[in-house]
Structure formats: C-alpha cells, structure tokens
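Can't paste images in this forum, so I'm doing it all in text. The chain is below; anyone willing to post the predicted structure tokens underneath?
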Amino acid sequence: MPKEIFPPAARSSQSATILIVEDDADVGQFLQQLIEEDTPYHSVVIENGLTALEKAPSVQPCLLLVDYRLPGVNGLELYDRLQQREDMRGIPAIMMSAVLPIEELQKRGIYQLRKPMDVGNVLRMITHALMSFEERQIHQQYC
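Text version of the structure:
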C-alpha cells in the first residue's frame, strides 16, 4: 500500500492497533496475518469477550474487529461494556458473524462483516470504518 493513501490513524502518534476478538483461532490468525501484511496497522488477537474487556484499554485500539458469537460475553455485549469506559468510548467497531443482529448494530453505528469473509471485503471495511471515524473527528474539531 503506498504511504499517501494510509489513513491518518496509521500515521499519527495515537495507537495504530486493531483489536481482533475472535474465538476461532484459525480465523483470528487469518485476520491478524491479513492486517499485518496488507495494512499499516498492527493487531492483537484476544480469544474471548471477558479477556477483551480486561485487556482492551491497555491495547488502546483504533478499531475493534469483533466476532458476534463469543463465549461468555457476545460481541454486542462486549461493545456495549467497552463503550461505558471513557477511554474506549467512540472507537469504531466491525462486528463479524454469519448471522448478525442488524438492527442493533445499526443503532450503535457498528459496521457489519458477514462470514465467510472475503479478503477484499475485510480490507475495504477496515479502511472504510477508520476513515469514516477520522472524518467525523475532523468534522467535530473544525465545525
């Protein structure tokens, strides 16, 4: 990827880490490899929602890439609980699953990614989510 098209988050001093919360180790590894090889971002994989609740603040992600069907705490519950934390509020999120609660995701402004996933769709969704978030931040700052 040429540097001039990297989203600002990848060039800023803020975290350029995508937090992947996925209980299927193969899917988590696939996403991590894709992100590390084809984007300017770093990634951290956490295998369940409860551990993600504990570790997400120290990761300081610029994006959450979360499986909906997680053991213990599902992806939507994880998102809602992270949004209660001031240091995690407003971080863009992409929810992944074969079956998604579309209305609930739309209410929260969470992006949707259907499984099975296509590599191009994953990369486009990550770029879209981060650029939309940055555009909103710039708009709020200057308008």
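The radius of gyration is 14 Å. DSSP finds six helices and five strands in the chain.
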